[in-house]
């Protein structure tokens, strides 16, 4: 494993932090009756807050005293690679292609128990890599070394990758931003996951407007906080060295 000495995040405001604690607790309750170590997170379309949810949930799990691993499995859109401006930042695709070992792509942060794996270079055959025996071996390995693995996948409305991963993991969360996805598309997403025999855990509503819940949360920004863990985490990660 490699380490990062830079500060990994900005502090969420209290209601947003509480929201992820509730999500974490709900997953814990679900895990009492069903094995739950690997979680696929997907959405119907881009920009619904999927990555933000993955990172925030991973951090919340780590802060509860468990070892959490965030995996960027969106091999078709390696935004982290683009922001880093690097051609040799190895990640999941490098391992699946047989060019590196698992230990070399797992990175630590300044948060105890919070680790991450970047997507790596953009491969020409992402679907085949994710549907390979090597990816199955990857899941076995990380389950032996981490308490919870949160896997960030491409939007299912665009490509089939999420269904492939969801079929191999213990459960799937769907992230939806209100007023951006039509009901029929959300239903299509659900049906596609069910065809893959994925276990759907529930839906995370991201970016809920103040007026829709201010009676309950005193007008605080909830999932749609401007001070997201992910924003500061990524910004500082880009500046850090492995």
Give a quick precis of the structure.
This protein has helices at residues 14-30, 50-63, 79-84, 92-96, 126-130, 133-145, 161-166, 183-195, 210-217, 229-239; strands at residues 38-43, 68-72, 107-108, 114-117, 148-152, 171-176, 200-205. By secondary structure, it is an alpha/beta fold. Strands 3-4-2-5-1-6-7 form a 7-stranded mixed β-sheet, with helices on both faces.
Q: What does this entry look like structurally?
A:
The protein is globular, with a radius of gyration of 17 Å. It has a single domain, classed as 3-Layer(aba) Sandwich (Rossmann fold). Helix content is 40%, strand content 14%. A hairpin with a 5-residue loop joins strand 3 and strand 4.
Which percent range fits the helix content?
40-55%
Number of domains: 1
CATH architecture: 3-Layer(aba) Sandwich
- Structural class comes to alpha/beta
Total strand segments: 7
How many H/I helices? Answer: 10
- List the secondary-structure elements in sequence, H or E: HEHEHHEEHHEHEHEHH
> How many angstroms does the end-to-end distance come to?
10 Å
